[in-house]
Amino acid sequence: MPDTTLPAGFESLQPFVRYWAVPGVQERRERREEASMEEITEFYDAMLEKAESAIKLFEGRDLGALEGAELRLMQLLLALAHASMATELHRQPRAPHTPYPHNVRLVKGPPLFG
Amino acid sequence: MNEQVADFRAERTNLTELAGLSKEPVSLEPYRSQEWFEREVNQIFKRAWLCLGREERIANPGDFFVQKIEVAKTDIIVTRTKGGHVRAFHNVCAHRSNKLVLDPEGNASRFICRYHNWTYRNDGELIGVPDQKNFFDLDKKSCGLKPIACDMWEGWIFINLQPEPEVTLEEFLGDFGEIYKGIPYLNADKSILFVSRLKANWKVIADAFAETYHIPAIHPETIGATFASNENPFARPISAQTWGPHRSVSTYGNPAYAPPEKAKVERLFYSNTATGNVLSAASLEDTQVLLQHPAINPTKSESWAVDVTWMFPHFQIDVSPGGFWTHHFWPVSQNETLWESRFHVPDATDIWSRLQQEHYIARLAEILLEDVGNTERTQEGIDSGAMETMPLQDGEVMIRHSLHNVRKWVEAATVREALAK
Ligand code: FES
Ligand SMILES: [Fe+2]
User: How many domains does chain B contain in total?
Assistant: First the structure.
C-alpha cells in the first residue's frame, strides 16, 4: 500500500491523495480532465477549506526540500488550481467545445513540481 | 514601416487600409492545395530565414539541440562552440550519411557517429577516423559536417536552408530588425513548453493566434473578460504594423479586470500582493525598459495587453508587461502541423509564487486547448470545399498580410523579389 498520510491536521484530505497527489503539472491537469464534475467538486470543496492552513504550513519553507506527507499535501494544494478550472471557469470538467482526448500537452514544466 | 493607429471605438477601424491591403475576401486554396503546399516548402521554408528560438537554450560551450525540419527532410544540429559562436550543421555523418546525434539536446564537445565511430568536434571538423589508412587518400579537412547558414539577431537563432542564402538575415528582417532592437526578454533562459501535432495546415494554426476577434467567443470563461470590456466588447486590436513580410498587432486588455467573487481559488492564489502576479515577477528595471520601448505597446495605451509579433513565415513572439512567449508553426504536410509554444516564466520557489504559477499554467493549458482544439475542425471545413474564400474583418489584418506575403514568396523567382515592395 502506498503511503497516503498527510501532516497532522490534514487527515480529512487523505481520501484524495491517491488520485490527486501526483508529481507534475501535466499529470495534475490530466487528473482533472479525466475526473467527473462530482469528483472534482468533492476534492475542490475539501481542499479549498484547508488551503489557507496548508499555505501557512509552507510559508517561508524551502519547497524543494519537501518530502513524504508534506510533499503529498503540496501536490494536493497545487491540484486545487486545476480543479478550479472546472469549478470556477468552465462549470464542467473540461473547457466547452474542446476535443477530448487530445494531444495538446505540456511536455516541459517548471523545475519545481513540474 | 507604416504606423497604424486605429481607434477601436470607431464604427470600423482602418488597419487593413493603412497596411495597403485589399479588402476582398481571400482564397482558401493556400490552406488545402497540395500543389500550393509544395511550393510553400520550396519557395518559403527552403528560402526564408527561420527562427529556431532563443540562444539561452544553448548558453554554454558544448550545449546543443537538434531541430528537425520535416518538410525539408532536414535534421539540424545547433551548437555553441568553444569560442562561444552558435553554429548549425546537417545532422549527417560525412562517411555514409548516418544520423550523427541521436539525443534531442545535451552538452558535448565532440560528436561520435554510432556506425563506424567517426568523430567530429562541435565546430564541425572531422577529428577521428578509425583505420584511416585503409581509405584512399581520405582528406579529413573536406569531410567535416556540412554547415547550414546560421545567424543571430537579438539573441534569436536563425537558420537558412539555402546553400548560399540570397539575402542576409539583416536584410530579411529589414526595418523590423531595427525597430525591435533592445527589447529585454524576461526569463529568456527559463521556459515551459506546450507541444501538439495537429491535423491542420500550418497557417490555420498561426491564424488562430493572430487575431483577438475570436476571444469573446472561444475563450468566454478563460480570458474573455481580460481582453474585452464594455468599452471594447469585440476585443478589437489597438493598432497594427507591418514591415516587409513581418507584422505585429497590439491587443487590448481590460484594465478593470479582477477575478469574480466565485473564483475563490484564483482570488486566494493571487491574494499575496507582496509577491505580485507571477506574470510580473520581472525586475522593475527590465519592465521599465520594456514599457518605454517604442516598438512595444506602440501607442502607449493604458489598456494594453499583449503585442503579437509574427515574423515571416512561421514564428510568433508575444510580449506582455510581465513576460514573453513564442509559437512555432512547423508544417509537416499540407494538413498537418507541429505546434510548439514556449512560455518564459520565472522560477517560483516560495509558496505564493508557486501557487500563482500553477494557476497560470493550468489556465494557459485551457486557453491553448481552446485555440488549437478548434483548428482541426476549421481544416475539415476548408477541405470540404464548401467555401471558396473567407471574408476577413479589419481586426484579422495579420492573416491577410500573412497570405499576401506567402503568395508573394511562392510566386517570386528570387528572395530579393519576394522582399521588394
Ligand atoms: S556513417 Fe558515420 S562513421 Fe560511418
Ligand atoms: Fe485564442
Answer: 2
Last residue of a domain, one of B130, B164, B198: B164
Report how far residue B318's alpha carbon sits from residue B308's, in angstroms, rounded to the nearest whole number: 5
**Over 50: is that where the pLDDT of B246 sits?**
yes
B144 and B202 share one domain: no
- Predicted pLDDT at B203: 98
CB spacing of A95 vs B359 below 8 angstroms: no
Which one, of B319, B322, B318, lies nearest residue B281 by Cα?
B322
Alpha-carbon gap: A7 to the closest alpha carbon of chain B (Å)? 17
Q: Among B186-190, B227-231, B277-281, name the most confident range.
A: B186-190
Cβ separation of A51 and B268 shorter than 8 Å? yes
**B159 in reach of chain A (CB within 8 A):** no
Whether the predicted model's global pTM rises above the 0.90 cut? yes
Domain boundary among B116, B135, B164: B164
| pLDDT recorded at residue B231 | 87
In a domain, A103, yes or no: no
Query: Considering chain B, what is the average pLDDT of its residues?
Result: 93
Q: Under 8 Å CB-to-CB from B409, ≥6 apart: which residues?
A: B40, B43, B44, B47, B48, B245, B312, B313, B415, B418
Interval between CA B138 and ligand 2 midpoint (Å) = 56
Query: For residues B416 and B403, what is the distance between their CA atoms, to the nearest angstrom?
Result: 18
pLDDT at B2 > cutoff 60: no
Q: Is the pLDDT of residue B98 over 90?
A: yes
The ligand minimizing its distance to the Cα of B217 is 2
Lowest mean pLDDT among B10-14, B359-363, B417-421: B10-14
Is B1 a residue whose pLDDT tops 70?
no
Q: Which ligand places an atom closest to the C-alpha of B112?
A: 1
Looking at the fold, whether B34 and B101 belong to one and the same domain comes out as: no
**Cross-chain Cβ contact A25/B197 below 8 Å:** no
In angstroms, the CA A68 to CA A5 distance is 8
Please give the residue range of the domain that contains residue B34. Answer: 2-41+174-419
